[in-house]
From TrEMBL:
Signal peptide: none annotated. This is histidine kinase. It catalyses: ATP + protein L-histidine = ADP + protein N-phospho-L-histidine. Keywords: Phosphoprotein. Coiled coil: none annotated. Residues 332-551 form the Histidine kinase domain. Its EC number is 2.7.13.3. InterPro entries: GAF (IPR003018), GAF-like_dom_sf (IPR029016), HATPase_C_sf (IPR036890), HATPase_dom (IPR003594), His_kinase_dom (IPR005467), HisK_dim/P_dom (IPR003661), HisK_dim/P_sf (IPR036097), PAS-like_dom_sf (IPR035965). The keyword Phosphoprotein applies.
Length: 552
């Protein structure tokens, strides 16, 4: 019975059908495994290829995976350039050399038609590919797929084999998928490089700006800065633990009152502010809003500009304008007063001479007082003219004591009217020095006016201003010192660093412009000297002008 059933199966072809079924099933399973492997390779390539890779790196990474799924002796990428083609990358790196692509080139055909293709070509059709003798060749089968940027074919991916008929349609489909994946990766790499280059250029520009720039978020955190803060502002910056701008810039634990960032948040408009540090540095701060795509405030850019020298220059210009006006006025006053004063002095001298001839000595002495007063008036007018034309006077050899006496001769009367006593302590052994006399007079005048104003604010039984000159040896240099001391209100320690800042003043608006000490310091520095201040609140202040004496 068993032999009969077996014979029946053989005659009806049942065994043959089973065999064909299992062969077909095995073949399908192999195809599924092959496709899964290819999908795995595409997925792995997508994961492995980084956006910062070069095109050569991307082709090298792909070539390492391809032999697992299809024959691959050569992998190349060609790109369109100037209506022709150029070999951009290949693996192995030294497999071949292609100097030009002829019109019949398969790669050119694929790019023109934007359709992938399999090419089984005789060696003479591929003679433009010069293969390195170290590798087997020539290439006999090519699978070429176009690479697109949007709808434009920008190049092609070439997979080559030295075997005949190495690829079929499923292989070509895989090569096209691979080309599409590599196109995306290469375009991402290019975009990344463009963004990186733009970021580097922006950061280089940001860091190259000499003015301090800070980027602050809406919660007052410093996101970015260019490290250009002045040395005077580094203290709080280095000590601050938090990233808050009020801690970094001001050493505070909470936002500043009337913070400009809050105004920017409210108005979405730039805000400008002038800020003076404790060291006297004057900064112009500009706050600019940074808006996101939704037009919402994302951050605030702060630009700090040091305008200390600009403010000093403005102060000097204002002072020069004042002196020019004073000079013009003094010239008119001198012209109007010199003639009558000459008549008064001359007439008094003639009358005194006649009285002396008549032996009326006592009456002649009275006329002598008129002559002396007239001469004093002429000296005051001349000093005023000289003072107002100080910029026209060159540096000459001067006697510091004489310059002090000239100033006292002009304003001593005004100070005495304020019930203030002036004490003179002028050193007798003071040598001459080279300086601009009228400018030195201006410095002393500013010192005396400030001392008078300081005394006007106190109630004392005795108000005293002491004008002194002295010699000082300091740091191996001899200095001539002209100082003015008063027993007035004194200066609070927190204001000492500000008193030389242009336009800073503690006086009422009608009593001062805040330029006197700033201009005085500029004069001292132009003479290679300086001004020193010592002050005790409630007891008084001493301002000292130090001028170098030329060494013998």
């Amino acid at each position: 019975m068993d032999d009969r059933e077996k014979l029946l199966e053989q005659l009806t072809g049942v065994d043959s059908s089973k065999l064909n079924y299992y062969v077909e099933l095995k073949k399908r399973n192999q195809e599924v495994l092959k496709q899964n492997k290819r999908l795995e390779i595409l997925h792995q390539l997508a994961r492995d290829i980084n956006i910062d890779m070069s095109i050569s790196d991307i082709i090298e990474r792909a070539f390492a995976k391809l032999p697992q799924t299809l024959p691959c002796d050569f992998l190349g990428l060609v790109a369109v350039k100037n209506s022709g083609l150029i070999l951009k990358a290949l693996m192995p790196h030294d497999f071949c050399r292609i100097d030009n692509f002829p019109a019949h080139s398969p790669s050119l055909k694929v790019i023109q038609q934007k359709t992938a293709g399999i090419f089984n070509l005789p060696p003479e059709e591929l003679d433009h590919i010069r293969i390195n003798p170290a590798y087997p060749g020539p290439l006999r089968t090519l699978a070429i797929a176009p690479m697109f940027k949007r709808d434009e074919a920008i190049g092609a991916l070439i997979v080559g084999s030295v075997g005949n008929n190495s690829y079929d349609d499923t292989d070509l489909s895989f090569v096209q998928h691979l080309a599409d994946q590599l196109s995306i990766s290469i375009q991402n790499a290019r975009l990344y490089k463009q963004v990186s280059r733009a970021k580097e250029e922006w950061e280089a520009t940001f860091m190259a700006v000499t003015d301090p720039i800070l980027l602050i978020d809406t919660d007052y955190n410093v996101l970015l800065h260019n490290g250009r803060l002045p040395a005077e502002m580094q203290g709080f910056w280095n000590q601050a633990i938090s990233r808050k701008c009020f801690a970094k810039l001001h050493g505070r634990t909470e936002p500043c009152q009337e913070c400009p960032i809050q105004e920017v948040q409210r108005t979405r408009q730039p805000v400008y502010q002038r800020w003076q540090t404790d060291s006297g540095l004057v900064l112009d701060l500009s706050y600019y809003p940074v808006l996101n795509e939704s037009r919402e405030l994302a951050a605030v850019t702060i630009i700090l500009k040091d305008v200390t020298e600009k403010i000093k220059m403005e102060g000097r210009l204002v002072q020069s304008a004042k002196l020019a006006a004073l000079g013009e006025m003094a010239a008119g006053v001198a012209h109007e007063l010199n003639s009558p004063m000459t008549v008064i002095i001359g007439t008094a001298q003639l009358a005194a001479r006649e009285l002396l001839e008549d032996n009326q000595t006592e009456r002649a002495g009275e006329l002598e007082d008129i002559v002396n007063s007239g001469l004093r008036c002429k000296r005051i007018i001349q000093n005023l003219l000289t003072f107002s034309r100080q910029d026209q006077q060159p540096a000459t050899e001067i006697d510091l004591n004489n310059e002090a006496l000239r100033v006292l001769g002009m304003i001593k009367y005004q100070i005495n009217r304020s019930q203030i006593n002036i004490v003179e302590k002028l050193a007798a052994d003071l040598p001459c020095l080279t300086a601009n006399g009228p400018q030195i007079q201006q410095v002393l005048t500013n010192f005396l006016i400030n001392a008078r104003d300081a005394l006007s604010e106190v109630e004392r039984q005795e108000k005293v201003i002491t004008v002194a000159t002295a010699l000082l040896r300091k740091n191996g240099q001899k200095w001539a010192v002209l100082s003015v001391n008063d027993n007035g209100t004194g200066i609070p320690p927190e204001n000492l660093a500000k008193i030389f800042t242009p336009f800073y003043t503690s006086k009422e608006a009608t009593k001062g412009t805040g330029l006197g000490l700033s201009v005085s310091l500029g004069i001292a520095e132009s003479h290679n000297g300086t001004i020193e201040v010592a002050s005790t609140p409630g007891e008084g202040s001493t301002f000292s002008l130090l001028l170098p004496i030329d060494q013998p």
